[in-house]
């Protein structure tokens, strides 16, 4: 009889972002007769975790505890109680920095759980002074022999773990579900009234990291060269109000559409002609894996790891240059795109090792062997 392994996932938020997509892709496809996932929700203001309903429908438990900014003592004590009482085989920390350490120290001190530290980013915003201090302070845990180190890319692993050994776990997707569908493309282009337009797309949290200021200036320059262009922004975040004001000041209100959080990103990718992605930094963005599987050409910043170059649909720009320099390139991407070439793109992504089956197999081996 197979003993079920219990894994506590820390790092999910209310945002439908890259970490959340990764964890849910794994949870949907892992053998749930052998592996049980529970989740910690430490969001403030009563926010639910992303995918809460789906998590609970698949048998996952969600434990709500205070956010560390709300009450650090209660956050620690309640997490300690959950770890002590549930006998988890693993506590899986999905992190961007070392700033939150309780998911590492508490299971090591108060349980027999093995601790996974999984790096999902390769940089840290220079303005986050408190978080930078905590990251510096807690980096000492990197030298512990009691943690299993995982990363979404080599760059993310080297940034968090430095010279310590780590294993790269690809941000896998269900590649066959991203096979380009021209019928859906036609339906969506008609629905959004963009049948004869140059359709640009950006998917990402409305936050500093994603470099929306550059993106909007870039799109302004694109419109100067071809006014028959439109930009859809998918995502939500703390900069939403500021960015809407920016759009208004650039006289782009009719051309930039804020779609918020969507569950049909794949279909929006089918609809679109080019993805614009000028982030300051990333780990290994799931959205770029998805875009390549749909065959959607993407223009991305030169700061993103070349490990994401799965297909030849990725082109890079230097975000230290003026956005104006890349307006022609963006339009060329649209003019030269060939719909027929998009249909087999998902096979290239699968062959490159980014199918969820490969990712799940790697994690199941870790959860089973503990190394």
UniProtKB/TrEMBL annotation:
Residues 16-175 form the Glycosyltransferase subfamily 4-like N-terminal domain. SUPFAM superfamilies: UDP-Glycosyltransferase/glycogen phosphorylase. It holds the Pfam family Glycos_transf_1. Transmembrane segments: none annotated. Residues 189-305 form the Glycosyl transferase family domain. PANTHER family: GLYCOSYLTRANSFERASE. This is Glycosyltransferase family 1 protein. The lineage of its organism: Bacteria, Bacillati, Bacillota, Bacilli, Lactobacillales.
């Amino acid at each position: 009889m197979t003993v079920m392994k219990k894994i506590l996932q820390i790092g999910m938020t209310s945002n439908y972002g890259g970490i959340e997509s990764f964890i849910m892709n794994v949870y949907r496809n892992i053998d749930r007769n052998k592996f049980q996932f529970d989740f910690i929700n430490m969001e403030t203001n009563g926010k639910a975790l992303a995918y809460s309903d789906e998590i609970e429908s698949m048998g996952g438990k969600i434990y709500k505890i205070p956010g560390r900014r709300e009450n650090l003592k209660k956050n620690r004590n309640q997490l300690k109680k959950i770890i002590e009482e549930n006998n988890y085989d693993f506590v899986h920390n999905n992190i961007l920095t070392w700033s939150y350490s309780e998911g590492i120290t508490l299971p090591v001190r108060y349980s027999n759980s093995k601790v996974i530290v999984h790096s999902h980013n390769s940089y840290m915003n220079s303005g986050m002074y408190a978080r930078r201090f905590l990251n510096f302070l807690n980096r000492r845990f990197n030298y512990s022999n009691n943690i299993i180190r995982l990363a979404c890319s080599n760059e993310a692993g080297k940034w968090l773990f430095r010279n310590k050994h780590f294993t790269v776990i690809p941000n896998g997707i269900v590649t066959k579900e991203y096979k380009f569908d021209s019928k859906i493309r036609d339906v969506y282009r008609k629905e959004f009234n963009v049948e004869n337009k140059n359709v640009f797309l950006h998917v990402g949290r409305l936050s500093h990291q994603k470099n929306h200021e550059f993106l909007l200036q870039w799109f302004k320059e694109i419109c100067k060269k071809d006014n028959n262009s439109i930009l859809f922004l998918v995502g939500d975040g703390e900069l939403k109000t500021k960015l809407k004001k920016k759009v208004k000041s650039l006289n782009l209100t009719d051309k930039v559409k804020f779609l918020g959080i969507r569950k049909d990103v794949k279909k929006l990718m089918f609809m679109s002609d080019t993805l614009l992605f000028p982030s300051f930094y990333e780990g290994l963005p799931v959205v770029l894996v998805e875009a390549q599987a749909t065959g959607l050409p993407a223009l991305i910043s030169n700061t993103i790891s070349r490990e994401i170059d799965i297909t030849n649909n990725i082109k890079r720009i230097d975000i230290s240059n003026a956005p104006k320099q890349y307006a022609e390139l963006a339009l060329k991407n649209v003019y030269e795109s060939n719909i027929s070439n998009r249909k087999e793109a998902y096979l290239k992504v699968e062959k490159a090792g980014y199918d969820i089956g490969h990712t799940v197999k790697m994690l199941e081996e870790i959860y089973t062997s503990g190394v």
